Amino acid sequence: MNYRLQRFNEHVALKYNIYNSLFMTLPFEGVGKTGKLLPIFSSICQEGYDRGLNPSEIVNEFFENYLEKNTETSQIDSLFQFIRYIERQVVLFDAIEDASFSKVYNTGGVGTIHHLKDTAEERNTLPILRNVIKKFKIRIVLTAHPTQFYPGPVLGIITELGKSIERNNTLEIKKLLSQLGKTPFFNKKKPTPYDEAVNLVWYLENVFYHSISQIYDYVETHILSEDDKLDNNIVELGFWPGGDRDGNPFVTADITLKVAQRLKSTLIRNYYGDVRMIRRKLTFQDVYSIVERLDSKLYTSILNEGKNTLTLEYFQGELQKIRALLIEKHQSLYLEEIDSLINKTKLFGFYFASIDIRQDSRIHTATVEKILAYCHKKGMNTFPKRYGTLSFDEKEKLLTEICYNISPSDFDDEEVKGVLESIYAMKEIQKSNGEKGCSRYIISNNQNSVNVLEVFALLRFCDWEFPTVDIVPLFETIDDLELAYDTMHSLYGNPHYMEHLERRGNKQVIMLGFSDGTKDGGYLKANWSIYRAKEELSKTSKNYGVRVTFFDGRGGPPARGGGQTHQFYASLGSNIEKENVQLTVQGQTISSNFGTPVKGKYDLEQFLSAGIENTVFSTESNLSDTDRKTLSELAEISYQAYTKFKNHEKFVPYLETMGTVKYYGETNIGSRPSKRGNSEHLDFSALRAIPFVGSWSQLKQNVPGFFGLGTALNEFEKRGAFEKVKDLYGNSLFFKTLVENSMMSLAKSFFKLTAYMKEDPDFGEIWNIIHNEYILSKKLLLKLTGYSVLMENLPVGKASVQMREKIALPLLTIQQHALKRVKELEKLGETDEKQISIYKKIVTRSLFGNTNASRNSA
């Protein structure tokens, strides 16, 4: 047996089975009975699907045999009891996996900074590693996208539960499980954007503050030469809560400022804690007074919520004085502690994480038009009356030349005021937290160079002639990705914009959206389009003397750019700029990857090592012409198959009627609306990627993670050209990673759950199309990889998925049963709205446990 799998079975599977039995001993009414019946229900579910029963038949069979008073009311009560019980089983499993992480995974092994150093020494490439690490960096950007189904108090319990499990403290575990039993999983109201920010700040102060500084300290003391200092923030943090206005009307400039203040005050509290620890050690007469003074000033700053009582320059200056005294007079005693705190001030400044502002390009266009119309009305005839009537070239010329001071108070229009106020908020944050506190403006739905120049003009409208802001276009759809080269080529040819870039260090950040790209073009096409766009953009940026950085908008599951993400960065050839890796991390992925300091440090090191290894050890070459042609053909065939399926007249109705997409808005997990616009009917273009991907996951069909891949592979097999695909798989880590992530999506599919749909008169055809593609994809991916089962190369991941799927199966069954009952009652024209409402509530409640069990499904 695989050693890591053996450790998983010993420290995760076995412990789960032991501690799971504690639920039945908790002092709650009915919990013992529920605990006895749930394993029976789980077995009946599995056996029932093997016999071809549908979810309602399974539920009814169970109740007929095991429910004493078999009424619909008692059935509903039992279903809710099962939901609550399973939700807490998932929490227990998460906590056990987190607590056992360092026992299952080698936290000093492959993919870590320690292993990177050892490998460089063995291969005599340590000088190259030192040179690379002085320039290479990653930026992890935390977003408030609504994929976190655990409320804050439950996340806190998971943390404490993990600590107790590590200590094998059964009494404490039982107490925490009791607390869990009394803690609600469902928010009665939606969180505000500020609430979302506060929830994520917890990870900054408890995980990232420690793990990032530990990595930095290790690099400086163990990788660089003795006299060398690291002048490169190898890990940076970005922050979207409070700044992401795209589609979220509740994010205002006041919220942005409030979040910035919270970030600064939290960081100062962390600095204060470190100074208090140092104060206990640096009791030397000439040093103690400086530490005491710092202690007092930090404390005063905390009381004033970080407002203008202490500057970063003063803080760093005092720490340098202490450092000099320790070296000069005290034999460098406790120098490591002071150096570590100095490093933290380099890493986090007084801002902790950089807030990004984001808004849709269409909002900017409308705002510019309204501002110019206002200026014209005020007698400023140099401004055109109707911006929309100008040609593309006229717009470009106008937008780069105008510079004016406009106040938000000049307008009654809330949209215009919101855009302008957010820019003035950026200026204020830069004054209070430093330039890095808020220095990027991201443009969603960026389609051309004018969209970028509109933001450039808006910044200069706010009394900011030379804005200290990086303007970041976000290319999301397949069409936008195809035009990305033309957009940037046009911008680089604009002398005014190039002057702006020169002031920004000749650096340009470009964001690429995996989620909407996959929703638009399918899994393979989206990933290949982004890869090719990066190649083209790297080339044109280099030609213009611009250092480009790619910022990847990734979600949790493979369908949204997730999965084994670090392997993507290890697979980039020399044609793609990769000195600076940036990506979003959101919701579930934050808690699952960065929920503890040990896991957080490990995952950060995986990202760092993947990018650095690619350069230091030259592990990945560029695609050959033959492999490139093969991949392009596969992507195009899969795109045609996905597009045909997406355009099927029943595609959207199937997702809306048979799935859970319309229930996401009822979960109260995020401040942002689940779809754009106010239409009562589901419009594909308005549907956000998270509920789109998440709904397929709830159906256990995972369409965005594989659809079209099987058709593409089958076409090559029919041509007798399957060996070309095998060659591609053997030659390209990029393609191999895509394949393995897609296999993860297939492994998390379970079509027996929805097999009843194939007989549905309206949607049977759609179900069969999906199922046939699943069968074809699975068969040919196994043939391509040579595996006998899905995820054969990831035994621990496979074992974890299997345990999670087993825990969630009763919950999935309950959800499908409830969906069927809703449709049945509505079809019969039932007027009992209360009964329909109850079953809808069951569907909504089941989303939580199902999503948490999958851990990266949305």
Tell me the β content: 5-15%
Helix % is 55-70%
In quaternary terms, these chains amount to single chain
Q: Strand order, biggest sheet?
A: 1-2-3-4-5-6-7-8
Largest sheet, in brief, is: 8 strands, parallel, barrel
Structural class estimated from helices and strands: mainly alpha
Average of pLDDT: 90
Query: How many helices in DSSP terms?
Result: 34
Number of strands: 8
GO molecular function: phosphoenolpyruvate carboxylase activity
Pfam families: PEPcase (PF00311)
Protein name: Phosphoenolpyruvate carboxylase
Organism: Elysia marginata
What would your notes on this structure say?
The chain is mainly alpha-helical. The protein contains 34 helices and 8 strands. It has an 8-stranded parallel beta barrel with strand order 1-2-3-4-5-6-7-8, surrounded by 9 helices. Helix 23 (565-570) links the parallel strand 7 (547-553) and strand 8. Helix 11 runs parallel beside helix 17 and helix 30 (722-731) crosses helix 31. The longest helix is centred in the C-terminal third of the chain and has 33 residues, at 795-827. It is globular, with a radius of gyration of 28 Å. The model has no long low-confidence stretch (mean pLDDT 90).
